[in-house]
Amino acid sequence: MGAFKATANVISRGGVARTVFLIALIAVVSGCAAPARLAKPDFCEDLAQTAPVDDWAEERFCLWHPIKCYKAHALKKATEQWQNDMAGKYWTAKDRNGLGDAGRHAHLMCVLAERFGAEFARGLGAAHEEDSEYRIFFRKAAPGNPCCEKVMDLHNNEIGIGLAGKPGSCEERVLSSLHLLRHSLCPRQGEGVDSPTSPPY
């Protein structure tokens, strides 16, 4: 009974504490502390494959970094807005796996690395790719993450982390690095993975 009262007190206070508590509670109740089902490092050697996902990888990572993840979520929204603002100037709007997608990944990782350090940025980016889709608030996680997309995103994450701390804003640095991001793009729908698009690694 005392545990339920303590829970009610935390929830009624609102704010960040409530959000962190709810995430932790959902994580524990759902059993997300189970071992991760991570793909072998060489699993995505064939870019046409689909890598298996760990439905709770991102939530598990954020269980250890709740405040940073909470702040990172707001930065993610700002990065998505930046991607939309740049559409038409540097890339086409809503081009899945296109240059805008690559730029968004690099920009977010640049910002996260500057705010929270490269280790956190890399960890959150990798957990997101292992997770593929979030499951909190009952959204069904995806059954897999296409290898080409996963490798592309991890590659662009590293470019963004490498841009952190250099002169100028992350926006400026990413826009001046589009030539590096172009080499990572997955083939467009209808093209095979053997298309002229270069694989990231």
Short structural description:
It is built from nine helices and two strands.
Record keyword descriptors for this entry:
201 residues, mainly alpha, 2 domains, two-stranded antiparallel ribbon, 2 strands, globular, disordered N terminus, disordered C terminus
Description:
The protein is mostly helical. It has two domains: 30 residues, no CATH class; 145 residues, no CATH class. It is 58% helix and 3% strand. Strands 1-2 form a two-stranded antiparallel ribbon. Helix 3 packs antiparallel against helix 6, helix 5 packs across helix 7 and helix 6 packs antiparallel against helix 7. The termini are far apart. The N terminus and C terminus are likely disordered.
Number of strands: 2
Shape from CA axes? globular
The order of strands across the largest sheet is 1-2
Oligomer: single chain
Which spans of ≥5 residues are poorly predicted at pLDDT below 50?
1-13, 27-42, 190-201
> What does the average pLDDT come to?
76
Discrete helix count? 9
Structural domain tally:
2
Question: In percent, how much strand structure appears in the residues?
Answer: under 5%
What structural class do you assign from the helix and strand content?
mainly alpha
Set down the secondary structure blueprint.
Blueprint (H helix, E strand, L loop, with lengths): L1 H12 L1 H16 L19 E3 L4 H8 L1 H21 L12 H18 L1 H14 L12 E3 H17 L6 H6 L2 H5 L19
Antiparallel strand pairs: 1-2
